[in-house]
Write a structure and sequence with these properties.
The complex is a heterodimer of chains A (112) and B (114).
Chain A: E1 3-6, E2 11-14, E3 19-26, E4 32-38, E5 45-51, E6 56-59, E7 62-67, E8 72-77, E9 86-93, E10 106-111
Chain B: E1 4-7, E2 10-13, E3 19-25, E4 32-38, E5 45-51, E6 57-58, E7 67-73, E8 76-81, E9 90-97, E10 103-105, E11 109-113
Parallel strand pairs in B: 2-11
Antiparallel strand pairs in B: 1-3, 3-8, 4-5, 4-9, 5-6, 7-8, 9-10, 9-11
Classes of the chains: A mainly beta (112), B mainly beta (114).
């Protein structure tokens, strides 16, 4: 069955540093992979989508890589800020009708 | 940008009663909406896919008679938790597709069953 793993432990970093979050998947080959941000008590907010034929994608301070050989995506936030503190969810997706299967999420805490 | 709303944002009910949660796409039409459930410190679990004008498709293990979904229009899907019990207490979130891959999520509804 499809399995998605994200860093289960919370990630604590200092403001200004780069945060790197990992998403590994097994037993399937997603057509694309999405990253979402979720704040406590709120619904997820879409951040970035990367397709299987793309190696890297950037949006402002965010960068996502997608390695289909390693079955892994890395999510980077450069020059991190306390406002970046949240839980980040990855969703490697087959592309069937838009169904999303989420990883368990990684909680990021950026200290001033 | 695309906005999805949910109502109510939180609800407390007695065991055995039914609760209806609404999900609306405010500025776009959505032929497909999704319902998720999230327990504390866990990820979102897809419950069902709601298609306008047709029956919902439920994920394995989700009781369709307990979680009734109606998608009567292109901007509204409802989830009714029937005969709610304390174990149904959770955070329910809906999403709607604007374009093929882009999903927008509602703010969620916190259900507490006493």
């Amino acid at each position: 069955s499809q399995k998605i793993e994200q860093n289960s432990e919370a990630l604590n970093i200092q403001e200004g540093k780069t945060a790197t979050l990992t998403c590994n998947y097994t037993n399937y080959s997603p057509a694309y992979l999405q990253w979402y941000r979720q704040d406590p008590g709120r619904g997820p907010v879409f951040l970035l989508l990367i397709r299987e034929n793309e190696k890297e994608k950037r949006k402002e301070r965010l960068k996502v890589t997608f390695d289909t050989t390693l079955k892994q995506s890395l999510f980077h936030i450069t020059a991190s800020q306390p406002a970046d503190s949240a839980t980040y969810l990855c969703a490697p997706t087959l592309g069937q009708g838009g169904k999303l299967i989420f990883g368990q999420g990684t909680e990021l805490s950026v200290k001033p | 940008g695309a906005v999805v709303s949910q109502h109510p944002s939180w609800v407390i009910c007695k065991s055995g009663t039914s609760v209806k949660i609404e999900c609306r796409s405010l500025d776009f039409q959505a032929t497909t909406m999704f319902w998720y459930r999230q327990f504390p410190k866990q990820s979102l679990m897809l419950m069902a896919t709601s298609n306008e004008g047709s029956k919902a498709t439920y994920e394995q293990g989700v009781e369709k008679d307990k979680f009734l979904i109606n998608h009567a229009s292109l901007t509204l899907s409802t989830l009714t938790v029937t005969s709610a019990h304390p174990e149904d207490s959770s955070f329910y979130i809906c999403s709607a597709i604007l374009h093929y891959n882009e999903q927008f999520f509602g703010p969620g509804t916190r259900l507490t069953v006493l």
